[in-house]
Amino acid sequence: MKKVRVILSPEAEEVFNFLNKEEASSKTEERILKGIKKKVELIKNNPHYGEPISKKKIPNEYVQKYGVSTSFGLNYHFFGECCIH
To answer: Which of the residues 13, 25, 34, 51 could staple to 8 if both were Cys, CB 3.0 to 4.6 A apart?
Structure first.
């Protein structure tokens, strides 16, 4: 099985690090972080997880900045006390 790495954009990494720091003090941040970690594990186990995004719809910025050639969309909804995946 090929090893899969999930690389966050600098902006996403900043938010992820913030959530890691706030996890102990806020249940909301803890739930969001747990949901993100769950999605990362799903992606690692199945790199084609999510809805495929047409190459034409991948922003040129992502292609140039991050070398993106394929992309899959994930939905993550957070409503107060309930996470829907």
So the answer is: 13
